[in-house]
What we know:
Layout: H1 3-12, H2 15-25, H3 30-48, H4 53-74, H5 76-85, H6 106-116, E1 126-131, E2 139-144, H7 147-159, E3 169-173, E4 187-190, E5 195-198, H8 205-215, E6 221-225, H9 227-240, E7 248-254, H10 260-270, E8 274-278, E9 287-288, E10 296-298, E11 303-308, E12 321-328, E13 339-349, E14 361-367, E15 373-375, E16 381-383, H11 384-387, E17 397-406, E18 409-416, H12 423-436, E19 441-446, E20 461-463
Parallel strand pairs: 3-5, 3-6, 6-7, 7-8, 17-20, 18-19
Antiparallel strand pairs: 1-2, 4-5, 8-9, 9-10, 10-14, 11-12, 12-13, 13-14, 15-16, 17-18
Bound molecules: zinc ion.
Zinc ion (ZN) is lined by residues 290, 293, 297, 352, 354-355, 357.
Amino acid sequence: MSALSRKNLWERTPPRVKHALGAALGVAPPTFWLGRAFREQLAFANSAQHWSADESSAWQLERIRRIVRIAMDRSPYYKNLYTNAGVNYDDLTSLDDVRRLPTIDKSTIRNHCDAMLTVSKSAPGIDYVTTGGSGGEPMGFYIGAERSAIEYAYLVASWQRAGFGANSVQAVFRGQIVAPDRNGLRHSYDAVLRRHYYSNFHMTDENMGRYLEHLATIGDCYLHVYPSSMSTLTRYLDRAERRLPANVRGILAGSEIVYDADRAATERVTQLRYFSWYGHSEKLVLAAECEQSSDYHVWPTYGYCELIADDGSPITRIGDRGEIVGTGFINRAMPFIRYRTGDYATLAGMQCSACGRKHMLLKDIQGHRTQEMLVCADGSEISWTAVNMHDRTFDGIRRFQFRQMQPGKATLRLVPGDGFDHSRTETIRRSLDRKLDQRIVFDVELCDEIELTHRGKTTFVDQRIPDARREETEARAT
Length: 478
Ligand SMILES: [Zn+2]
């Protein structure tokens, strides 16, 4: 059995069995259990991140030619697509030539999933995964099981820039279902991977207080969080005037949009570095901050990333914004070649002046048609980023979310926290009214809880307008 499937198997082992085995197995470090492929990929990523731009480009071109060749030889969909476009892998003599290949998008995957495969879908080591959720129609595709170890190696190589080590302890707040232990604390420990899991479905003030007390007992550790979980925790720390225990060394936050104001609030309240990354379940583009800069450095050896304008032309000027188009090097079972992700970013440079890495730099990454949009009566959209109040408007509120069923109207759902009083509702209404300016008329509803998505994430807008072609930034679930 390969080391990779060993990790996958371990992650699927029931908690009770893990607990018993973990105590016995936990003497070996996670790098041992993660296996040789993980260790090799980590070493490769660590050396490749310092390549010159020419070295990276040459390597990327070779990889793209290889994946295009596999696609043309073995997948009926790509053979047809590239034959019609009059392009062959031999024609790709520079990265500029890659633009001769037509782009594909989510509808391609929905309509041609089977024909895109280069192997039988029942072949060993091929998984079917789905992304998506509440608003949009879920999308399913096939991917090789080896992806986990490869991706995890790149994540660890990224996190190392924030001081994390492959064998460091993690305190995870990311949507795992965690049952109460014998003391009623929603915590479990995986001794093999050295991960403490806490339930982010139960972040009441009382539970967060208990999480902090427990965190203080686990030694040096890194928080591994969704940005929304961290934001909930930050607001709690702030209003309860508490601090994270001193053994927490840093914050690793990914898989959701990071709002600058949330990052700033967390860094102010915790006095720790907030380190984030961008990735997605299709495993095409992975980008992470560096030691000094919070721009996203695109890993050149993970996949090929392009930024394109709406007319398909490449974005080359710093400060311009375009759609992230990815070509993955990892998934050979079902290649994604020039896939329009639906995510948008601003080009921040082609090398980092702070760390010297010759990587494409992105900032302000955002899903284009995410459910994080409110739709006005005239069909125009207001982005959540614009609506979000970065002052004390939501003090005393544990969670909040807009639910929208029809354009121009919405319901603001609030989960009161400790110390909430009803005059707050009016304050919130007035603050938001000023921003929304009658373009969205909303009422306020107090509720006991706001359901998280099936991945345990918070969305700020539960967008339910029928037929609105809204697709999640979903998953982004690395
Ligand atoms: Zn840098």
